[in-house]
Design a protein that fits this description.
There is one protein chain. The chain is α/β, with parallel strands linked by helices. The chain has one domain: 3-Layer(aba) Sandwich (Rossmann fold). The protein contains 8 helices and 7 strands. β3 and β4 form a beta hairpin. The mean pLDDT is about 90.
Length: about 210
């Protein structure tokens, strides 16, 4: 399979990532490959301390939405703090990289790694050019060389219907716009998830085979 080992799947909440990942893993295993799955969105080491400070500074507040009580970051209110937060997140993800490299299966499916983290930071800090900045390069240096990146694309109305909390999330529009920007990147493959899950999986298999 083209010496591809690491498959990084990204996409906004409600895009259908989980369904695509589950079907992809099942399909690869049926073809005789060993497959590991790892969820990589939150790798908080130094960021744990930053989150505590953010709460003290009023940059992270607990709100009630369709998911219940959740914390919302408002890092854009203090740009200097946001820059430190970015550096801590980069450091933490370099550390977390070891968890991925330790997996010895034929394929490793990484859910919500690097691109999703950059977009979270961009949305919470209102850094709408983050994908064209040095931060994009710095975070992407974390990825192993034998990696292919995919972003799951779905109609915005379907996304909103699937995850109702998106309707009240103040970062949703920023996140959605950043994912649209991500789809224009030459190193990221776009998976059209408006059809069947099987069709979405076949798009990924066509790239890694």
């Amino acid at each position: 399979m083209n010496n591809i080992k690491y498959i990084v799947i990204s996409g906004i909440d409600g895009s259908g990532k989980t369904s695509v990942i589950n079907e992809l893993q099942k399909t690869l295993e049926n073809q005789g490959y060993s497959v590991s799955y790892i969820w990589m969105r939150y790798n908080h080491y130094t960021v744990k301390c930053m989150n505590g400070i953010a709460r003290l500074l009023g940059l992270s507040v607990k709100v009630h939405n369709a998911m219940g009580k959740v914390w919302e970051h408002r890092l854009y209110k203090m740009p200097w703090f946001c820059k430190i937060y970015l550096r801590c997140s980069l450091f933490d993800n370099w550390i977390a990289r070891r968890k991925v490299l330790r997996l010895k299966t034929d394929f490793v499916i990484c859910d919500r790694w690097v691109n999703d983290i950059i977009i979270d930071l961009g949305a919470e800090g209102r850094i709408m050019n983050i994908l064209d900045s040095k931060w994009y390069e710095r975070f992407h240096a974390i990825l192993p060389t034998n990696t292919k990146q995919f972003v799951i694309n779905r109609n915005i109305n379907d996304v909103l219907d699937c995850r109702v909390e998106n309707n009240t999330n103040p970062d949703f529009q920023s996140r959605f716009l950043l994912y649209q920007q991500l789809m224009k990147k030459s190193d990221v493959y776009v998976v059209d998830n408006t059809g069947s899950i099987e069709n979405s999986v076949s798009q990924i298999l066509n790239v890694i085979s």
